[in-house]
Design goal:
Length: 295
C-alpha cells in the first residue's frame, strides 16, 4: 500500500519533524535533490489555485521530475468516468498524484484505488500541504515548534482543521476562535473558543483565512461576512499577542475583510515567506512519499 497524505494524520510526529528538517535543507539548497529524476507527478485541479499549482509545479521540476497539471475540463471525469478508473490509469504513468477537489470522498476514492501516493492539495475539509508550509514558517521564525502558541481566528474551515491536526502533532498549542455556527469540531489538543481576543492573548503567531471558502455556498457569503466581522485580524488584535508575534494567512487574502491591509503588508507578517515555503515543504513531502529518502 502506498503512503498517502490526505489529512496529515498519516504522519507520525517523528516523520513530521524529519520532513520539516528536510524542507529546511532543501530551502537552503533548492537544486540539491534529484529525487524525482525523469518521473511524472500528476496534479489534478478541480478547483482554482495560484499558490498550490505554482509551488507544486516548481517543486516537482526542482526535484528533476515532470509536473503534469490536469484541469477538470481536460479529464474524462467531466464525462462521467469514475475516480476509481482515473486512479487506475494515472497510477500506471505517474509516481504520485495530487488532487485539489471539493468533496473529501473524491480524494479518498483516488487514494483507495491508486497504487501510488495521493496528496491532498485542498479539499473542503483539509489543506495539509498548507499546514506543512505554515509549520516550516513558524520553525524558521522561532527556531522551534514545541510549546509555541498559534492562534487562528475566523472560520473553522479546512485550513483551521489542518493546522489543528498538524500543529498538534508538532507540539504547537493551536487555539481556534470562531463564531458560533462556524466552529471546528473538536480536534485532539486544539483549544476551541469563540473569543478572538482570548485566543490571541500572548500567542506567538496569529493566523486567519478567508471567510468564504471555495466549497462554501456562495449565497451564504453575506451571512458569513456579518458573523465573522468581529474576527478580523487587524493591528488592534495583533497587539494582544506576544511582542514578537507574527501574522500568517494562507492566501488568497481579502484585505479589509478577514485581514487588514496594515497587517497583510505590515512589519509583522510572514505571509509571503509562508507562500514560498509551500514549495520547500512539498519537495520534502514528495521525497518522503515517493523519493525513498525516508524509507
Ligand atoms: N493557499 C493556497 O492554497 O492558495 P491557492 O488556492 O492559490 O493554491
Ligand atoms: N479556506 C480556503 C483556502 C484557500 C487556499 C478555501 O478552501 O477556499
Amino acid at each position: 500500500m502506498p503512503r498517502h497524505f490526505l489529512t496529515g494524520a498519516e504522519l507520525s510526529r517523528d516523520e513530521l519533524m524529519r520532513l520539516l528538517e528536510r524542507a529546511r535543507v532543501l530551502k537552503a539548497e533548492p537544486l540539491s535533490s534529484d529525487a524525482l529524476h525523469r518521473r511524472t507527478v500528476a496534479l489534478i485541479f478541480q478547483r482554482p489555485s495560484t499558490r498550490t499549482r505554482v509551488s507544486f509545479e516548481a517543486a516537482v521540476a526542482e526535484l528533476g521530475g515532470h509536473p503534469m497539471v490536469l484541469r477538470t475540463d481536460e479529464l474524462q471525469l467531466t464525462r462521467g468516468e469514475s475516480m476509481r478508473d482515473t486512479a487506475y490509469v494515472l497510477s500506471r504513468h505517474a509516481v504520485a498524484i495530487g488532487i485539489r477537489t471539493g468533496p473529501d470522498e473524491l480524494a479518498g476514492e483516488l487514494a483507495a484505488h491508486g497504487s501510488v501516493p495521493v496528496i491532498n492539495m485542498l479539499t473542503a475539509r483539509h489543506h495539509p500541504c498548507q499546514a506543512l508550509a505554515d509549520l516550516l514558517t513558524l520553525e524558521e521564525t522561532f527556531g522551534r515548534l514545541e510549546g509555541l502558541v498559534l492562534a487562528y481566528v475566523g472560520d473553522g474551515n479546512n485550513v483551521a482543521r489542518s493546522l489543528a491536526i498538524l500543529g498538534g502533532l508538532a507540539g504547537v498549542e493551536v487555539r481556534i476562535a470562531s463564531p458560533s455556527g462556524y466552529e471546528l469540531e473538536p480536534v485532539a489538543g486544539a483549544v476551541l473558543g469563540t473569543d478572538p481576543r482570548r485566543a490571541v492573548s500572548g500567542a506567538n503567531a496569529v493566523y486567519t483565512d478567508v471567510w468564504v471558502s471555495m466549497s462554501d455556498d456562495p449565497s451564504s457569503a453575506a451571512r458569513r461576512r456579518e458573523a465573522l466581522a468581529p474576527y478580523r485580524l487587524d493591528d488592534a488584535l495583533l497587539e494582544l499577542a506576544a511582542p514578537d508575534a507574527i501574522a500568517l494567512h494562507c492566501l488568497p487574502a481579502h484585505p479589509g475583510e478577514e485581514i487588514s491591509s496594515e497587517v497583510l503588508y505590515g512589519p509583522r507578517q510572514r505571509i509571503w515567506e509562508q507562500a514560498e515555503n509551500r514549495r520547500h515543504a512539498q519537495k520534502a513531502l514528495l521525497e518522503f512519499l515517493v523519493g525513498g529518502r525516508f524509507n
